Structure formats: C-alpha cells, structure tokens
Amino acid sequence: MSTLLELLKDGRFHSGQALGESLGVSRSAIWKQLQLLEAELGLVIHKVRGRGYQLASPITLLSEAEIGQHSSSVKAWDVRIFDSIDSTNAEALRSIEQGGGSPILVLAERQTAGRGRRGRKWVSPFAENIYYSLVLRIDGGMRQLEGLSLVVGLAVMHTLREHGIPGAGLKWPNDVLVGRKKVAGILLELVGDPADVCHVVLGVGINVNMQSAEEVDQEWTSVRLESGKTVDRNQLVARLSEVLVSYLERHKRNGFSAIQEEWEQGHLWQGRAVSLIAGVNKVDGVVLGIDRQGALRLSVEGEERVYSGGELSLRLRDGS
Length: 320
What we know:
Elements: H1 2-8, H2 16-23, H3 27-41, E1 45-48, E2 52-55, H4 64-70, H5 72-75, E3 78-82, H6 88-97, E4 104-108, E5 130-138, H7 148-162, E6 168-171, E7 175-178, E8 181-192, E9 198-206, H8 223-227, H9 233-254, H10 260-266, E10 273-278, E11 281-290, E12 296-300, E13 303-307, E14 313-316
Helix pairs in contact: 2-3, 4-9, 7-9
C-alpha cells in the first residue's frame, strides 16, 4: 500500500494499467488497494474513466532520509515511521516495554486513537499533520523532570514562529495557541522510577496542513491556515527535533529555573483572569506566572497560590 501511495502522491492521474505494471499486479488488485486506501486512511481518490486514478490533492509522505538531511540529531536516533497506528505515544510506550534503546522517535501519517490530556481525542487525518513521540531515558532523578512539558512547549512555540506563525504562544500547561485557537499540544508519559532511572515519552501533536476537521471540539488552527502556505512536514519535524534537543540540553544543564522567565514571556495568559478546573472544583484567579518547577502561580482573592498536576484545566474567564 505504501508503494501505491508513492506512485499517487503527486496528485496527477495514473492509469490502472500503469499502476499495475509498476507494482507487478493486476488492475483488479490495484482497484482493491485503492479501496483500502480510501477506507483505512480516509483518502479521497478521484476515479475518471479513460484517465485513471488521482488523489484529491498531492501529499508529501514522511521520510527518515529527508528528515535526516535537515537534522543531525535525528540521524542518531532510532526513527520509526508508520502509515497508520493507534497513537505514536502508545507505540513509544510499547517500545519501552520491549527494551528498545533510546532515543526512539515514533512518527505516523495517521493515528486511529490519537489522544491528548485527560483522554481527549486528538483528530489525526492522514499525511496532514505531525504526530511525534520521542522516547528519552532520564537518569538525573526528579530534577530532570521539573517543568519538562513546559520546555517541550517552548520548543514547539519557537519552531512554529520560525515557520510563519509569529503569534504562536503558550497556554499552561501543555498547549500552543494562536490567539484562542489551538495549533499544537503536548502529552508527556512516564515509565519507571522518577526518583532514579526512568523513560519519558515526549508526545507532540501539531496541526500542520489540516484545513478542515468537523470532529474537533474546540477552536483550532493550523500552520497552513495561519501562514497561507503548505508546509513540508519533513523539514518541520527536523527543525522541531533540533530546537527540542537544544532546550533539553539547557534544561539538563541548568534546570527549569533557567528557562522559567522565557516561558513566562511566551505565555499568552500572563496577567489574565482565569478559572482553574480540577474535576468538579473550580478556582477563579489571575495568572501571576509559574514557579521554578513549572507549577502555575495564581492570585486568588489577593493571595498567591500554586497549582500543579496532570488533571488541571485552565480557562479564560468571561471578559478577560
């Protein structure tokens, strides 16, 4: 199926006979594979008598070789690219269970069970966005985990700014927004003893070339919608990896406190009136910033309070 996609990805018409000759199969076998592409990957393929088959729009597929041309870091990693998978984070966790050496980078053209924080579904159309999970071994104990998701967010934000979105900014704890619209999200998952040796999966989802998605239940945007240009996802993956390695090295060397002020400068909701929601509980306050471990600092009824935890949700209050 990947070989057939390679032939069709240019968005031009290809006859069934030519496709069959290229793959060494019959025209009926080509027809069946095309049906699978539509059913399993959600692709739209035009079928015109006398002309052949054509993807509704050209696609660029992820390529380890092309990513490696733009990133020296990725060349040293175990890179695994899937046409379709449940989720890149799930596959990354499986690689840890199987004893794979790190770093491992898992990428996919499509996810069938992509997820964000608090179990939210992450809509994952084929060959349009970036679904990225990096497995790292952490030997430095808890200090190496402090504020780690915020560090990843900074790397994503700066990568997007370089790619034509100067208004990209951060929302505590794990989102990258343009205005109020989400363009990227981060999901970290931990395996092992955080006080000793453990593995962490740095999961990143970026809306890259997606232009429509009826299933998304919140305001969203994409790099293409914001910049007006189709983005080469291989180059974006490569650049994200380079920026991420740079931030991770700073974090390992100096701790999160050295990055704290920079993160606050990128936080879109500094000084804003917000509601912090944890289950059925809600706290109203004004964002003061974050502390040296990445926890949220709020002014609540004139008193500073600090909040951290994976199940917290931050929302702007009406009129803020």
